[in-house]
Specification:
single chain, D-Maltodextrin-Binding Protein, domain 2, Lysozyme, 6-stranded mixed β-sheet, 5-stranded mixed β-sheet, 13 strands, 51% helix, binds glutamic acid, Membrane-bound lytic murein transglycosylase F, Solute-binding_3/MltF_N, cell wall biogenesis/degradation, signal, lyase
C-alpha cells in the first residue's frame, strides 16, 4: 500500500516535472528580440540625425543629405523602410539613442571620440574629417591652441569639439568657451561670419558643406588629427544591428557607392576649390538677392525650378548681367543673338530680360527632348542641350546607342559627349565637331550649385525666409537662441 502510494506520488511528481520543466525552461529561453530583429519585425529603421547640409535636410524634392542617402541605402539593404527622427541637439540624440528602443541608429555626422565610448557603440568609419578652428577673415589668424585664449568661442554642446576644448582646458585653465545646445553648425559659422563670436570649432566636412554660404569664415588651423565619422548604436552588448551596419558599410565602400555619394555631396569642394566656395558665398549674399524674385517669377511662368535657373545663371555669368563672351553670347544667362530673338529678348544685357529669356529657352529645350528621357535625367539632358545644342546632344545619344549604352541615361551619354571633340568620332555624326567636354562640366557644376541653393532654400527654412527676406544676410548681432536665428 505504502509502496503503491509512494509510486503514485513519484509518478505525480514526474508528471509535474514533465509538464513544468519545459514551461520553466521555455520561460528562460524566450529571448528578447535583438536590435536587428526589432528593426526587421517592425519593418522600419528609425535613424536619428541632425539637420545640417552635411547630414539631413529637405529640399523641394523631399528628404536628402549625405547621412540620409546612406541610411536609406542601409534600410534598403535590410529590406525595411527608413524613418528619420530629428534630434534637438547632441545631448538629446545620445539620450534618445540609449533610452528609446525605437531608435536603432544615429547617423548624424558624428565622430568617434574617447568620451563617447560610454554613450554609444561605433560602426566602421565611412568618412575622414579633421576638426578645424574657424575665424573671421578680417581678424588676426590664430595658428595654435594658445591663440584661443581671450577669444569668444562657441561650440555645439555635447560635441566632440566640446570634448576637445575640455581636454585643452586641463592644460590651459584660462581657456574660456561656451557650449550651446540651441544652435547647429551653420549657426556657429554664421556667428563667426557676422562677428558675433570670434571662433568656433567644426569638422572639415561641415565646413565644406557650409563654406558656400559664409564668405567671411576661414580655417585658422586644424585642432588635432583627422578622425572618423561613424554611425552609432546604443551602448549595450547587442551588436546585431551594428554587425549588419558594418557589413553594409564595407560593401558600399568596396563597390564604389560610398565614393559616389561623397562625390555627390562633397564634390563641389573639389570643383569650386576653397576660394571658389567662399566666392560663391559672397555672390550668394551680394548678387543673388538682386535677381532672386525674377528667377522665381520666370521659373514659375515656364514651369521650371527657380533654383535650377539660378544655378544655371551662376554657371553662365556668376550672376553678372553684362558679361560678354568671345563667341558673342551675352548677359546673365549668356544667350546667343538667335536665341534671344527667338525668346523675345530685346536687350540681352538687361538681367531681367535675360533671366526671362533663359528660363523660357530652358523650358523649351526640355520640352523638345524625346519623351523616352525621364526625370531626373531629363533635366541634365536639357542643361546639356542648353549648353551644346540639341543636335550635338542627339549625336552623343546615337553614339551611346552604338556602344550598347542607354541613350536616355545621362550617366551613359555624358561618357559619349567628349568624343564629339575627336575626329575619329565626330566624323561619324550628323552635326560634327563640338567641344563635348564642356556640357559635361556645365551640368556637373550646375548640379553642385543647385544642391547648394536647395539647402539654402529648403522648405522648412523658406517660410521664414519669405517672412523676413533674410536668406542671404540675416541680421544677428547677439547670440540668440535657436528659434530666433534667421535661416541662412
Ligand atoms: N562632428 C561633430 C561631432 O561629432 C558635430 C558636428 C561638427 O561640428 O562637425 O560632435
Amino acid at each position: 500500500m505504502l509502496i503503491q502510494i509512494k509510486c503514485q506520488a513519484r509518478r505525480a511528481i514526474c508528471l509535474l516535472l514533465i509538464v513544468c520543466i519545459p514551461l520553466i525552461a521555455g520561460c528562460e529561453e524566450t529571448p528578447q528580440p535583438t536590435a536587428l530583429e526589432r528593426v526587421r519585425d517592425a519593418g522600419v529603421l528609425h535613424v536619428i540625425t541632425r539637420n545640417s547640409p552635411a547630414t539631413y535636410f529637405q529640399d523641394k524634392n523631399g528628404e536628402t543629405g549625405f547621412e540620409y542617402e546612406l541610411s536609406k541605402l542601409f534600410a534598403e539593404y535590410l529590406g525595411v523602410e527608413l524613418q528619420i527622427e530629428m534630434a534637438d541637439n547632441l545631448d538629446d540624440l545620445f539620450t534618445r539613442l540609449n533610452k528609446s528602443d525605437a531608435i536603432a541608429l544615429a547617423a548624424a555626422g558624428l565622430v568617434e571620440s574617447p568620451g563617447r565610448q560610454e554613450q554609444a557603440r561605433f560602426s566602421h568609419p565611412y568618412l575622414e574629417v579633421t576638426p578645424q578652428v574657424i575665424y573671421h577673415k578680417d581678424q588676426r589668424r590664430p595658428s595654435q591652441p594658445r591663440d584661443l585664449l581671450g577669444k569668444r568661442i562657441m561650440v555645439l554642446k555635447g560635441s566632440s569639439h566640446a570634448e576637445q576644448l575640455a581636454a585643452l582646458k586641463l592644460e590651459m585653465p584660462e581657456l574660456e568657451y561656451e557650449e550651446s545646445d540651441a544652435v547647429e553648425v551653420n549657426d556657429l559659422l554664421r556667428m563667426v561670419d557676422e562677428g558675433v563670436i570670434d571662433l568656433t570649432l567644426v569638422d572639415s566636412n561641415e565646413l565644406a558643406m557650409n563654406q558656400v554660404y559664409f564668405p567671411n569664415v576661414r580655417v585658422a588651423f586644424d585642432l588635432g588629427k583627422p578622425t572618423n565619422v561613424v554611425w552609432m548604436v546604443a551602448a549595450t552588448d547587442d551588436d546585431s544591428l551594428l554587425a549588419e551596419a558594418n557589413k553594409f558599410l564595407d560593401q558600399v565602400s568596396q563597390n564604389g557607392t560610398l565614393q559616389r555619394l561623397k562625390q555627390r555631396f562633397y564634390g563641389h569642394v573639389d570643383q569650386l576649390g576653397y576660394v571658389g566656395a567662399y566666392t560663391f558665398a559672397r555672390h550668394l549674399q551680394q548678387r543673388l538677392p538682386r535677381y532672386e524674385q525674377q528667377f522665381r517669377k520666370s521659373a514659375q511662368e515656364h514651369g521650371v525650378d527657380w533654383r535650377l535657373m539660378a544655378a544655371l545663371g551662376y554657371q553662365e555669368s556668376l550672376w553678372q548681367p553684362e558679361v560678354t563672351s568671345k563667341t558673342g553670347v551675352r548677359g546673365l544667362m549668356m544667350l546667343t543673338q538667335r536665341t534671344a530673338q527667338a525668346m523675345g529678348v530685346a536687350n540681352r544685357l538687361d538681367p531681367m530680360q535675360s533671366i526671362h529669356g533663359g528660363s523660357k529657352y530652358f523650358a523649351h529645350v526640355k520640352e523638345s527632348l524625346p519623351g523616352s528621357i525621364q526625370e531626373p535625367d531629363r533635366t541634365w539632358f536639357a542643361l546639356a542641350a542648353y549648353n551644346v545644342g540639341g543636335g550635338h546632344l542627339e549625336d552623343a545619344r546615337i553614339l551611346a546607342q552604338k556602344e550598347g549604352l542607354n541613350p536616355d541615361k545621362w550617366l551613359d551619354v555624358k561618357k559619349m559627349l567628349p568624343r564629339l571633340a575627336q575626329k575619329k568620332w565626330y566624323t561619324q555624326t550628323k552635326y560634327g565637331y563640338a567641344r563635348g567636354g564642356e556640357p559635361v562640366h556645365f551640368v556637373n557644376n550646375i548640379r553642385r550649385y543647385y544642391d547648394i541653393l536647395s539647402w539654402a532654400t529648403q522648405p522648412q527654412l523658406e517660410s521664414n525666409q519669405l517672412a523676413d527676406n533674410s536668406l542671404h544676410k540675416p541680421a544677428i548681432n547677439k547670440t540668440p537662441p535657436k528659434e530666433e536665428l534667421a535661416p541662412m
